[in-house]
Input
Amino acid sequence: MEELAKKVALVTGANRGIGRVISIRLAQAGAQLVLAGRNQAGLEETARMIVELSTVDKLEPLICHMDLLDASSIDGAVKKALDLFGRIDILVNNSGITGKVAPLWEIGEQEWDETIDTNLKGPFLLTRAVIPSMLLRKSGSIVFIGSVTGKRPFMHRSVYAASKLGLVGMMRTLALELGSHGIRVNLISPGFVAGPRLEGVIDTVAEIEKISSEEAHSKMRAMIPIADFVSPENIAEGVLFLASDRSAGITGDDLNISGGLVMY
Ligand code: NDP
Output
């Protein structure tokens, strides 16, 4: 029996990047996927990959339009999933933006609000919309994707750090509130995850420090005890663990998947 058989999992930002890899991994473990996001073509591509990679009969993933800056689209997506499946067992709040990369005093109010609204208010609205159905069944697993940023500060990332550490406080409080209802709440803090987003960061480091891209790569790897970036698959394995009954005794936890870049 597959680990997540009969479970329904909703993943935000499922159209690309880490969200796509998480979605595929949960589907491989037997979950029925609800792929949420703004980019229809990307969501369809993730759905196609899930169907193509499946080895046993799988239900087609459900695609739901969801813009975290639009409360009605969040409620609409949750309603669509609940109308079809009657339940959401696993919620993965993966979507996130870096926001303005600049010293704090150069960040505009709107830029601040957009990052906080996407990374913190959006997950609040979505999680709030999903919880009642979990409460009815007295079970569920909620996973937030945070970041090591802030626990380990990086230059010019104040708004991103504030949003991601805000998630930690929200997650811990929610774990306390939901523990007696059979619902677990955890967060993963990824370090440097290999992929296009990291390549952009490396290019910026190279530009600012006037070094080559290869030197910037080496410099960033040298910060990590395992001397390598983590992969989206590493993050997806963490999500699978926290979503499954293997982590039954864990709630309110902030799991670093960073190769040791951060250890607390
Ligand atoms: P990407 O930039 O590749 O993907 C971000 C995802 O978030 C996209 O699917 C994007 O959708 C979605 N998104 C952004 N804004 C909204 C919105 N308003 N409504 C709905 N969806 C939205 O990033 P990654 O895959 O690398 O990152 C995934 C998560 O992991 C993020 O929360 C990020 O902060 C976190 N993280 C990533 C690290 C890394 O090194 N990559 C390190 C630490 C944490 P769209 O395509 O429509 O823009």
Remarks:
- The pocket of NDP is lined by residues 12-13, 15-19, 37-39, 42, 66-69, 94-97, 118, 145, 147, 190, 192-193, 195, 197-198 (CB under 6 Å).
- The chain has one domain: 8-192+231-257.
- The mean pLDDT is 96.
